Amino acid sequence: MAPSTTSQRGGLSSTALALIPIAIAINVALGQLVQSILKLPIYLDSIGTVLVGVLLGPLAGAITGLLANIIWGLTLAPSALPFAAVAAVIGLIAGYAGQYGATQTWWKMALFGVLTGIVAAAISAPIATYVFGGVTGAGTDVLVAMFQNLGASVLGASFAQGAVSDPLDKTITYLVVWAIISALPRRLLARFGNIQQR
Amino acid sequence: MHRTGLFIDRAGFLQRRNPLTKGTGVVLLVGATFLLPAPLTGIALLVGALLPLAFASAVGWRFLEILLKTLLPVLISLVLVQGLFFPSPDPTTVAVGPLLFRRAGLEFALNTGSRLLIVAGAPLLLFQTTHPGMLVQALTQSGMPRSVGYILLVALQLLPAISERAVGVAEAQRARGLETEGSVLQRIRGVVPLVSPLIVGALIEAEERAMAIESRAFNAPGPKTWIRDIPDPPVERIARMVLLGMLAALVVWRVVAAIG
């Protein structure tokens, strides 16, 4: 990880330790808020994860995703636990996006969003298939039924459903994070080591 | 104490056990549902193990309530999607009213649904009977990085406050004319004004927290002491060995069965 303004003895810096729990709480709070107030057909439950990844690097991003799903499991739905690995990979990719300097332009962020969505769909599909039988109890199950009716296997239909919903969700997540980061004062951003500055 | 998620403060059998022993039990139960081939393994383990344990720990009804609340939509969806659209060469169907279910699909749904009862139920019972602080302390004492425990506990404590703040931001932005109705594109545009005050606040708060962490020498090397003791008598350690032994036996049995 890039040097940070606070001390670090292996593992996470104090800045990471301070930011990650807030980001996790934001993940969960926003996931619920977006559903209840804007009523959008997307989850937007990984904004905090992508933010930490972009600002603090792949390791911090992966830890945020992993622990966020454990918190979901601890507080609301134990069925979120099997997907913790997916959330960790989302944070990991966001970390590389930050290192690569994707935050400089919106279209690079959008590309990383699409990429993250496809990878997330590919990792969630086997979990959804072998643990949940391909369904999640949400509206997207209609898509699974449709793809199976078209002749796909359970695994294939799970992946196809993810490949439709996830890139859209993750692209919006990345663009939201981009919009926020570009509006931040550089003094605030300078505290977080991962981002390539212009 | 802050609201601590699923935990219910009662006295009972599981509440007196060491968190590590309960965690090992969860691993064994979840492992068993994947290793044992019988379709009803999950239901049998729920009735034979989880429910008696839940009622012996005075959380039985709450356990059933939350388990059903989380799983019912999944189970209904499972029966409908897989019962009607399961890809299988077996054409046998079962008529239920006007619907023609596929036999293979219903079997698949029963299998998966029965396993889900344990995959969701076993961690649920652990979380309902274990204070998060105790769980984190036990895990940290047996080798989990201290930073991970810190993140989990702080996130749990912050959740109610951040949720409240998020609702406050939403109300403030609506008072300023934020569109929360209209076309999907319009509503997507509403995401940034909702999210950015939360994130900017978080980044500023993170700096203050980082300084607090620094000033308390959180990252200092060397052993730390704990204010509470988690009892771990020999009988608990033996119980963990037995549970792990059972899991190992299941794995060996499954591998032998697969080869033979």
Explain how this protein is built.
With 198 residues, chain A is mainly alpha-helical. Chain A has helices at 14-38, 47-56, 58-75, 84-100, 106-132, 141-149, 154-183, 186-189. Chain A contains 8 helices and no strands. Chain A is globular, with a radius of gyration of 17 Å. By secondary structure, chain B is mainly alpha-helical. Chain B is flat.
List the helices and strands and how they pair.
The complex is a heterodimer of chains A (198) and B (260).
Chain A: H1 14-38, H2 47-56, H3 58-75, H4 84-100, H5 106-132, H6 141-149, H7 154-183, H8 186-189
Helix pairs in contact in A: 1-2, 1-3, 2-3, 2-4, 3-4, 4-5, 5-7, 6-7
Chain B: H1 19-35, H2 41-56, H3 60-85, E1 93-96, E2 99-102, H4 103-129, H5 132-141, H6 146-175, H7 184-189, H8 191-215, H9 234-259
Antiparallel strand pairs in B: 1-2
Helix pairs in contact in B: 1-4, 1-9, 2-3, 2-4, 3-4, 5-6, 6-8
Radius of gyration of chain B: 24 Å
Give the N-terminus to C-terminus distance of chain A in angstroms.
19 Å
How many DSSP helices of chain A?
Answer: 8
Specify Rg of chain A, calculated over alpha carbons: 17 Å
Structural class of chain A: mainly alpha
Q: What's the average pLDDT of chain A?
A: 84
Q: How many strands, which pairing sense, and closed or not: the largest β-sheet of chain B? A: 2 strands, antiparallel
Provide key terms for this protein.
heterodimer; A: 198 residues; mainly alpha; globular; B: 260 residues; two-stranded antiparallel sheet; 9 helices; 3% strand; flat
Produce a short descriptive summary.
The complex is a heterodimer of chains A (198) and B (260). Chain A has eight helices and no strands.
